[in-house]
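**Sequence with structure:**
===
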Amino acid sequence: MSPDIGYCSIMDRTDRAPGLRDYKGLGLTDFHVVPHLGNPTMGQAARLIVERYSTELDLRALTDRQSLLVRDGGTTMLQS
C-alpha cells in the first residue's frame, strides 16, 4: 500500500528473491503498514521495524486479525 516497502525487508528472506531489484510499493497510501504485530513467528520482526522506523515513517502496525480499508481518501481499521 505504501510508496516503498523497504522498511519491511528485515521481515523477509531476501535470499529467496535474488531478482528483487527495488522495494517499490503500490503507493496507495502515504503511511507504511507493518503487518504481523504479535504473531508468534513474525512478531519480533514487526516490533523491530516499529522500533527502528517509528521516528522516521508514519507507521500503522497491524495484528493478523486487523486490516485497513482505504476508500475515498479515508482509512478505517477493521478487526476480525
Q: What stands out?
A: The chain has one helix and four strands. Residues 3 and 28 are 7 Å apart (CA to CA). Residues 6-79 form a domain with the Rossmann fold fold (CATH 3.40.50.880). The mean pLDDT is 93.
